[in-house]
Structures are given as structure tokens and as C-alpha cells.
Design a protein that fits this description.
By secondary structure, the chain is of the alpha/beta class. Helices cover 42% and strands 26% of the residues. The strands form three sheets. Strands 13-14-16-17-18-19-20-21 form an eight-stranded mixed barrel, surrounded by four helices. It has a six-stranded antiparallel β-sheet with strand order 3-2-1-6-5-4, sandwiched between helices. Strands 7, 8, 9, 10, 11 and 12 form a six-stranded mixed β-sheet that branches. The radius of gyration is 31 Å and the shape is globular.
């Protein structure tokens, strides 16, 4: 009998044996919890074999399809997954999905009678489309959730659950700590040794941890080049940790110094029931408190960091509502022409004013936006707010000045975001010279690797670009060599050191002269004193931005300022 000749249901003994053989032949070399044949026309299911549990043994049995899926929810599917499972496995949904893509896959979490949690993948595909016959299978994918396929260590989820199991064991009286590691400059390994060499290095890290005197109880690769381990506090020795965090990686007759930073979170008894996931998040944040990673590449988590982490966690929780409630506003900080003393342009800056009137520091919410992937949404909000502001004033014949907006490096990974910005700047009633974007060196390096064409497309139609925070990174000169920036913004760190030393003043003179030599204008950020303004004027700086002239202003105040100075 050919596959197309199968009719369902067929309940004779010989026919059932034949059906079994056909299904097994198609699914050879696969290991499933169960395999079944679903008749979408008759809403029935024939279970060819199953090994789910003794509670649910329907091998060689035919049942109503809805009875079968509701039985699964009654006995095995986690309560929080039941509604989704019922929706995914609905017959009408299956028909729609299979018509669109020939197969349909979804996952659900199982809770076994012994308390074990598993991840099950349900896979549906047509056996005979005309007859409405679909092969359905369920496969355990738990190992993929808990074991990192590259290193063989635990994934983030596996590490969290394993560490929490140990911490919550009342029989264990040891004092524990979590060590969170982040490799520095890992890109250099991939550049020098290739992707395969990079993978070997990642597998090498857990071996180093196991061979160390930390004697880790649990190791996890949380993401990319971030690792964590649960240890006993008595095994943490700062001198030994210093050595561990600086290694020489050797492969293919080449060697490379490998550095890492680490946060140590000591866990008091009263915190042993806390979320390990939150501890890891706090540890990752705390790495930013390391002042010099070469002198002391580790830090011990303390109350100051805890307070900062709690503030950021609260900020993250409130962001969604703040975006919906229009609590974010665009402010404008004027930039003044040194020669004329008049407003030459402005920078658009986002500010968050909570409903009760409290202002939230950008230093608090901008990093959170970057971490949760919403920074591009915010940048697009700023861009469109500026566009509307300029277009409205231009239409009313009111004075306008060029306004620059910051672009995050994450924007260049978001093709929809870049397409939206390009569409906006191409379809505005305002001359394109008034639309400008500020890009940091870090963001530009991302652009150069991923989507440099986006900048070039905007540059070709007349959009101007600023290199922001010039001098704060390590690749400034190669950056201005490789891209034709219209303006360089001198990092405020230079401005604040004016008058502190001959060397500091000489560097500023040299940067401004160099910029003019290559035909680029200079904006100095952060000027606050007469001394700073006078020095920058003597150096030939083109524009100055800072509190000496004006703080960032709400839109209506900035509009009034433009009207007064027109």
C-alpha cells in the first residue's frame, strides 16, 4: 500500500500493524516521547506509541483529538502553559499553520509526577494532505535548554536552577559566593585564531575554572563570553583570582594575552532564597564599577552597587508605562558660534519626567534602554519629535537652526529603524542641512562592520554627521580618516581640564588645528566657565556648547529663545 492510499481510521489488526510500520519507517532514527497520526477531517488521533508516563499510556489506541490534548493539560502541561498549548494545538490553528508552511512546531513545559520539569517540542506535518492526515510527535528538548552546546556547561537557565537548588538546600551550611566573569577583547581572539579558535577558547575557560582553587560547584556560560560559577567563599583568594583573570591563550603556534574581569557576590544566609538570576544581573552591572581592570580586575559587590542595581531595576520596570504615558520629552541645548556669539545649532536630548514631576537622570535610564533593546525606539521618538518641531516652525516662517540627534550603536543593527530614519529625512519640508546626527566612535565602529551604507545614503542626500565624544575612545584618528564627518565634538573631559596643565591645553590646540586642516569644524562640549570659553576662543574653536551659555531647555523655552535671538 502506498502512503497516499492510507485511509483513517483503520482498526483491523493487520491494518494497524501496517500503519505502525509506515510511521516507524518515516521516523526512523528519531527518539520521541510519542508519535501519532491525526485525522484533521475527523478530529481523531491514533497513538502509534508513547512513553510519556504510566499515567498516559495510549499506545496503539485511537482517541478523540480534543480529548487527547486536554488530557495532556490535565496531567502534564505546566499551568501557566496550558492556555498557550490549547491555542497552539487547536485543530483550526493546525490547519491554518500547515497550509502556510507545511509543518508546525511549538514547545511547552511539562511537569512530571516526580516534580521534574521538561521542555517538549511538538512537531506536526502532513502525511497525506488530501486526506487531512498529519503526523504528530513530541520530543524532549530539555537538554538544549539547560546545556550549552558549545562548551557542554550549563546555560544561563541551567546555572540559575542548579545554583538555586544548592543554595536552598537546608542541609548545606557552607558560605557561598557567585563569581561572574566577562572576557575582555574577545573579538581579538576571533580575529587572530578564527571562529574555530574562538570556540576553543570558550571551551578552555570552564576547564581553567575547574582546575583552579575555586573548586566551583556549578559553572554556567550565561551568554557569549560571560561565565558564572557558584563556589564556597573560603575558596576565593584575591591573589589567586588576579592570576586567574590574566591568562595566555596559545593555539596554532600563536599566543594572545587574555584578560577578564570578575564580580564577587558573597551570599549571606538570609539571601540564599533570592533569585540567582537577579544576582547575576547585579554582578554584570557591578563590573562597571571597576576603576582599572588591569590593576584590580575584580570587585566585591556592596550596598552601594545594590542600591544602584535596585534603582536600575525599578527604572526598567517603569519604562514601558513611561513610554505609553508620554513621560519622555525632548529638550534642546543650544550650541553657540564663537565668532558671532549667536545660536548656531542645538543638540536634542531626551528627558524623563515621571507623572508626579520627578526627573529621572539620563545616566540611569539610557543604559537601561540600551540593555533592554528599546534605545532605538527612543532614538526614533527623538528624531520624529525634532522633525515635527522643525517642520512646524518652518511652515510658520519662524526661525530655525540645525538640530543634531544622537544615534546609538544599536540603531545600526535595526534595519527597520534605519529605513524609517532615511524615509523621514528624505520626506521633510525642512532643508536637509538642518537635520544632523551624532555618532560616537563606538557606534561608528559598529556601522563600519554592519551598515555603513545607511550613513553613506544619508550623507549623499545632504544629512550632516558629527563625531561625538571625540577623544574619549581609542580609535579617534582612524575614525575621522575613514569617514567624512562634518563636525567633531570635543569630549567634555578635555574642556574640563583646560588650565590644569600645559599638556592638556596643548592637546586641545592640536586637535582643533588638526580638524581645521582636514576641513572639519569643532564643537567643544561642557564649557562652564569664562576661562574655558576664552581659551577655546583663542584656540580657534568654531562652536561651544555648555552651561556657560545655556542648559538644555524644554521645547517651548527653546522656541522662545529662538524667537528672541532671531
Amino acid at each position: 500500500m502506498n502512503e497516499g492510499d492510507v485511509r483513517f481510521p483503520v482498526m483491523g489488526e493487520e491494518q494497524l500493524a501496517l500503519k505502525h510500520e509506515q510511521i516507524v519507517t518515516r521516523l526512523l532514527n528519531k527518539v520521541y516521547d510519542y508519535v501519532a497520526l491525526v485525522d484533521l477531517h475527523k478530529n481523531t488521533i491514533y497513538i502509534d506509541f508513547d512513553q510519556v508516563s504510566d499515567l498516559w499510556d495510549w499506545t496503539n489506541e485511537e482517541h478523540d483529538y480534543d480529548e487527547a490534548r486536554f488530557s495532556l493539560t490535565d496531567h502534564f502541561i505546566l499551568p501557566e502553559d496550558c492556555e498557550t498549548f490549547i491555542r497552539n494545538s487547536d485543530r483550526e490553528n493546525l490547519i491554518r499553520q500547515l497550509e502556510e508552511r507545511d509543518e508546525y512546531i511549538f514547545t511547552s513545559h511539562f511537569l512530571q509526577p516526580d516534580g521534574t520539569k521538561n521542555v517538549k517540542m511538538f512537531h506536526y506535518y502532513y502525511y497525506d494532505r488530501e486526506q487531512g492526515l498529519v503526523i504528530a510527535s513530541m520530543e524532549d528538548k530539555t537538554s538544549l535548554l539547560y546545556q550549552d552546546p558549545l562548551t557542554g556547561e550549563l546555560t544561563r537557565r541551567g546555572f540559575i536552577e542548579s545554583a538555586e537548588e544548592i543554595l536552598r538546600d537546608e542541609q548545606r551550611t557552607e558560605e557561598f559566593a557567585i563569581l561572574y566573569f566577562n572576557l575582555r577583547g574577545f573579538k581579538a581572539i576571533n580575529d587572530l585564531f578564527g571562529a574555530e579558535g574562538g570556540d576553543k577558547a570558550l571551551r578552555w575557560i570552564p576547564r581553567l575554572l575547574r582546575q583552579s582553587n575555586l573548586h566551583p560547584l556549578v559553572i554556567g556560560r550565561l551568554n557569549a563570553d560571560h561565565f558564572a560559577c557558584l563556589v564556597e567563599q573560603k575558596n576565593v583568594n584575591e591573589e589567586e583570582l588576579m592570576d586567574l583573570l590574566h591568562q595566555t591563550y596559545v593555539a596554532n603556534n600563536r599566543s594572545l594575552d587574555l584578560y577578564a574581569v570578575c564580580c564577587i557576590i558573597n551570599i549571606p544566609d538570609e539571601d540564599r532564597n533570592d533569585s540567582v538570576g537577579s544576582m547575576c544581573g547585579a554582578a554584570r552591572m557591578a563590573l562597571n564599577f571597576i576603576e582599572d581592570e588591569y590593576v584590580k580586575p575584580f570587585i566585591v559587590f556592596d550596598e552601594r552597587m545594590r542600591t544602584h542595581y535596585m534603582e536600575r531595576s525599578q527604572t526598567a520596570a517603569e519604562l514601558g508605562a513611561a513610554l505609553e504615558n508620554d513621560e519622555f520629552k525632548v529638550y534642546y541645548q543650544p550650541v553657540y558660534d564663537v565668532r558671532t556669539g549667536k545660536i548656531a545649532s542645538a543638540e536634542a536630548l531626551v528627558r524623563w519626567q515621571r507623572g508626579e514631576g520627578d526627573m529621572v537622570s539620563p545616566g540611569l535610564f539610557v543604559p537601561v534602554l540600551e540593555e533592554n533593546g528599546r534605545i532605538s525606539q527612543m532614538d526614533l521618538f527623538v528624531e520624529r519629535s525634532v522633525k515635527n518641531f522643525l517642520e512646524q516652525r518652518h511652515a510658520q516662517n519662524q526661525p530655525i537652526v540645525p538640530i543634531s540627534m544622537n544615534m546609538s550603536q544599536m540603531d545600526f543593527y535595526d534595519k527597520d529603524m534605519m529605513a524609517s530614519v532615511l524615509l523621514d529625512v528624505s520626506n521633510t519640508t525642512v532643508p536637509l542641512d538642518f537635520t544632523r546626527f551624532e555618532v560616537t566612535e563606538t557606534a561608528y565602529s559598529t556601522v563600519a562592520e554592519n551598515n555603513r551604507n545607511a550613513l553613506l545614503d544619508m550623507k549623499r542626500i545632504g544629512v550632516k554627521f558629527y563625531l561625538d565624544d571625540f577623544g574619549s575612545g581609542y580609535s579617534s584618528f582612524s575614525t575621522i580618516r575613514d569617514f567624512d564627518f562634518d563636525v567633531i565634538k570635543l569630549d567634555m573631559g578635555f574642556v574640563q581640564k583646560i588650565g590644569t596643565s600645559i599638556k592638556a591645553d596643548g592637546v586641545i590646540w592640536s586637535i582643533i588645528a588638526m580638524a581645521h586642516t582636514i576641513g572639519t569644524k569643532v564643537v567643544a562640549e561642557g564649557a562652564e566657565t569664562q576661562e574655558q570659553v576664552d581659551f577655546l576662543t583663542d584656540c580657534g574653536c568654531d562652536y561651544i556648547q555648555g552651561y556657560y551659555y545655556s542648559k538644555p531647555l524644554p521645547e517651548h523655552e527653546f522656541a522662545e529663545l529662538l524667537n528672541k535671538t532671531a
